[in-house]
Design a protein that fits this description.
Oligomer: single chain
Radius of gyration: 22 Å
Order of helices and strands: HEEEEEEEE
CATH topology: Porin
CATH class: Mainly Beta
Number of domains: 1
Strand content: over 45%
Helix content: under 10%
Shape: elongated
Structural class: mainly beta
Length: 211
């Protein structure tokens, strides 16, 4: 952690490499996170780096029995850390308020997953067995798997909207694919695993140094 603290200190101290500072909300294949980022724009090219906090949600977004998709759930301090690198190519620079761009976004995290499952354990005794209306009773199980190394790659389109000379809001939408490295003996799946997902990013930024 001391190395990350050193990086953050340098980024705060040397404004020349921190063109913009942003606070971002991300929804990726792993789940959700809040990430602070720093970027520099050279001509139409923007390169950024961020550190963030992974949000572990007890409530699952679906009941599909997924092991990974939207299932990231931190159980140790290191699992909460999200690292983010991105590249934006800005076009239509002559537009005044809205600044569109295409992007590539890379996020890396290391965390466990949390999944709930329903398994049959008995038949409803009030119904005669082996009939079409026979009811099966289910028991819910909650399990933690991993940890896994998540590498999330996303591409898409976004735009900045200036609220003032210094403050702007940002939105990015796209698609991604993540690779998961690591194995759990209870899951008979090879490593790495890959999944596709939708990508959403909403943020607010401050221009530290105008281009």
């Amino acid at each position: 952690m001391k190395y990350f603290s050193t990086i953050v200190f340098i980024l705060f101290s040397i404004n020349i490499i921190a063109q913009n500072i942003e606070l971002n909300y991300y929804s990726t294949g792993a789940g959700r996170n809040i990430t602070a980022s720093y970027s520099k724009i050279i001509n139409n090219n923007e390169i950024g780096f961020g550190l963030g906090y992974n949000i572990g949600s007890i409530k699952q977004p679906d009941d599909q029995g997924n092991f990974y998709y939207k299932r990231l759930y931190p159980t140790k301090p290191i699992h909460y850390l999200n690292t983010n690198f991105y590249y934006n190519y800005h076009f239509l620079e002559k537009w005044n308020c809205i600044k569109p761009f295409v992007f590539y976004d890379l996020q890396v995290k290391y965390s466990t997953t949390r999944s709930s499952f329903y398994t049959p354990y008995a038949f409803d005794s009030s119904i005669v067995s082996n009939t079409p209306d026979e009811k099966i009773l289910y028991r819910k199980y909650i399990e933690y798997f991993g940890p896994y190394l998540w590498i999330e790659n996303s591409v898409g389109i976004g735009f900045n909207v200036d609220l003032s000379d210094r403050i702007y809001i940002k939105q990015k939408f796209g698609l991604g694919i993540h690779f998961l490295f690591g194995e759990d003996k209870r899951i008979a799946l090879p490593s790495p695993q890959l999944e596709f997902y939708g990508f959403i990013n909403i943020g607010i930024g401050i221009k530290i140094k105008s281009p």
